[in-house]
Amino acid sequence: MELLGIAQAVHERELERTLIARPKDFLIELGYGFCFIGNQYRLVLGDNEYFLNLLFYHRFLKCLVAIELKTGRFRPEYAGKMDFYLEVLNDQERAPGDNPAIGIILCAEKDRLEVEFSLKSKANPIGVATYQLFPEVPEEYKGMLPTDDDWPGASRCCGTLCR
Q1: DSSP conformational letter for 140
Q2: What gap in Å lies between CA 43 and CA 51, rounded to an integer?
Q3: Which of 44, 92, 121, 126 has the most CB atoms in a 10 Å sphere around its CB?
Q4: Is residue 12 within 8 Å of residue 69, measured between CB atoms?
Q5: Does residue 74 surpass a pLDDT of 70?
Q6: Taking the CB of residue 71, how many other CB atoms lie within 10 A of it?
């Protein structure tokens, strides 16, 4: 998150706004092949509506990638919520020929055992990752991270930003 200029704890909406305001930096962090679809992506099921923090499409995996941002530690209920979102995405948004959607829960902290038990019975692929906030790049990583000049500019495909 330090590449995005986030050096202290923030609320989830602020974290999301920062990521959306600097899409190139966030797409570089995610890796090659991600296409941004939207934030606060609306899903409707019956009379209810739900909102995913971030939704991407991965060109090479050929699947939707849902990301939920959490500023605190991982909680088991996040896995159930993500599994639900993936079911809805697979039913309503997945295109013919696409692979099943993948979910990523990005949180400040996690307990490995708690995550393992929370995901054990889930049918959909869900990953839990943590992030750290640094006021600046740690000394041992200086010179190892790419600069803006190391990356070709973001391009457009299918109307979305891609890296």
Answers
A1: G
A2: 6
A3: 126
A4: yes
A5: yes
A6: 16
Closest by CA to 160, choosing from 39, 67, 47, 56, is 56
Nearest of 1, 27, 30 to residue 9 by alpha carbon: 1
Strand partners, 66: 55, 103
The answer on pLDDT for 22 being more than 80 is: no
Q: Please report, for residues 106, 135, 154, 162, the alpha-carbon distance to residue 5 in angstroms, rounded to integers and kept in the order given.
A: 17, 8, 19, 21
Please tell me the distance from the alpha carbon of residue 135 to that of residue 94, in angstroms, as a whole number. Answer: 39
**Residue ranges of the alpha helices (H) in the chain?**
12-21, 23-30, 76-92, 112-119
Report the distance separating Cα 154 and Cα 69, nearest Å.
23
For the entire predicted model, the pTM comes to 0.69
Query: Is-contact 106 129, C-beta < 8 A?
Result: yes
Starting at the edge strand that comes first in sequence, how are the strands of the sheet with 63-73 ordered?
Answer: 126-130, 102-109, 63-73, 48-58, 34-45, 160-162, 155-157
Average pLDDT over residues 136-156: 58
